[in-house]
Amino acid sequence: MQDTLPFLSKNNPFPPLLSSPHHHHHKHHDFPSLSRPRNLHFPTFSSKTITSPLPPKPPKIPEIPSISPPPSSHSDFQEKMLHLDSIGLDFFSLIQHHPPIITTSLDDLKSAVDFLTSFNFTTLELRRILSMCPEILTTKPTSLLPIFTFLLREARVNGSDLKKVINRRPRLLTCNVETQLRPTLYFLQNIGISESSHLEMN
């Protein structure tokens, strides 16, 4: 037994479990310690400031340009304003709803007002009719006359009721006889309602 195991000492039959310090240092060099923390690589953050996107800008509301008279027609502009003011009409309110009044001559405005006055419309009635339908001010009497003729002859409105019909429906004075009033009258007649009866009911 002693011949086969010559490296075993008599006093210490078991080999040392720990190696020499030099050998231990060598082992430590070959196998890294498990207790040493590993170098973990974390992503680096940029030092730039992170900004959230701004909300979209609301659309700009277009500004309504102020209406001013041309320099060359300043006096005509004032005369039209004074004439309509004498009836009790706000000139700037009228041109806001119907801008062509600006370019309509003073004579044309007067002729439209005079035409209605010839049918005995009072100033109060004119103020209401023209405020509701300022387009009448830019309509020539030659275009207004066929409407009155149509109402009296074809629609058979009584002369005494003519003012009442116009006061109830001033927009009739802005309609075209050929393309609007007459086709409407024929339609009502076909279903058994006359235009005059229809106007009186409303």
UniProtKB/TrEMBL annotation:
Which of UniProt's keywords are assigned here?
Transcription, Transcription regulation, Transcription termination, Transit peptide
> According to the lineage, what is the superkingdom?
Eukaryota
- KW Transcription regulation (keyword) present: yes
Q: Return the Gene3D superfamilies for the record.
A: Transcription termination factor 3, mitochondrial
Which terms does the UniProt entry file under GO BP?
A: DNA-templated transcription termination
InterPro entries reported for this sequence: MTERF, MTERF_sf
Q: Does the keyword Transcription regulation apply?
A: yes
**Pro residues bias spans:** 53-72
Question: GO molecular function terms here?
Answer: nucleic acid binding
Q: Where is this region: Disordered?
A: 16-76
Sequence similarity: Belongs to the mTERF family.
> What is the name attached to this protein's record?
Transcription termination factor MTEF1, chloroplastic-like isoform X3
Q: Which organism is it from?
A: Herrania umbratica
Q: Gene encoding it?
A: LOC110420399
